[in-house]
Fold:
Amino acid sequence: MRKSRIWTLLITFLKIGAFTFGGGYAMIPLIQTEIVDKQKYINEDDFLDLITISQTTPGVIAVNTATFVGYKVAGILGALVATIGVVVPSFIMIVIISWFYTAFRNNFWVSAAFSGINAGVIILVFYAIVRLGKKIDRVPFTFAVMFLAFGLTTFTEINIIFILLGAGLAGVVWCGIFNKGLKVSA
Amino acid sequence: MIYLNLFLAFAKIGLFTIGGGYAMIPLMQQELVGVKAWLTLQQLTDFIGVAQATPGPFAINTATFVGLETAGIPGAFFATLGVVTPSFIIIIFIAHFFLKSQDNKWVRSILYGMSAAVIGLIAASVYILAESAFFPKGITMPDVKGLVICAIIAILCFWKNVHPILLIVISAGLGLVLYGVF
Structure:
């Protein structure tokens, strides 16, 4: 059981490392498909928690997410395997590309393929947020936080860590002090 | 000694950036171009271009590339290890405590607000990506090819549930045809 989990983590995160373009967000739909839907190691509510914490913690978001998902699925060894998985394909590809990187960058066909990927990835990330968005309570409070975070990130230079901290504080005021929002009361 | 220096420089970059790959660029400039003078600004800009065009997390790609150019394959190894190590350790600690306190009222309250904000943040990245992909020359000059690719991928993704990896491969194929052939 545990052994097969470790193996699945390694294979999944190797795939994620090899097929994620751009930043850490593009890996979200891949983890959803492999770890949440297919293997059912994590449910979608917990997955949203993991993404949120990975965003808020210093470091590389992709590594944070891999480490956290790995830890949740199979402990420290799982964390290690998932992290190695997400790093190794990049490492190998960069070493290979660096041998002929000027030719790679300026190649007409390479840049045509990347223009296509850049367009497709937008839909992939959009699909991921539609799914995650379904896990959020549909109340004015969460909509307000969502739109504020969107607007501040898009149209101002405010560091996103302040936006996240502000949202966390708003959550404490709303749920903790006014006792609203939370379904389970501990 | 260069290996230890690479490790430490990238560990610092990994430790002090929140918000992922692109937030690391200013610190990379400071550390790699300014303090250590391992690279010129032009070299760093080139590396960032290649790192963006290569699969995998942007920060890992950049670390590997800078390490490689500075001190060969062992340099690449230590730079990559450096950028990964702080994340790994911090997340293990957080994960350990979080999974125990996941149902705590205050933890849930913080996450209640933050999760909503994270959805907004990711939506913002979609908006910014879409703006640069579809309107590279402003709103009056849309990139029709990009919009066509998006429409096809959206249909395959939302209605046919095609696997994300296959969608990436299809996007690349569509890019080759639309941007390459026409």
Observations:
- Residues 2-135 of chain A form one domain.
- The helical segments of chain A are 2-19, 27-38, 44-56, 61-99, 101-106, 108-133, 140-155, 160-177.
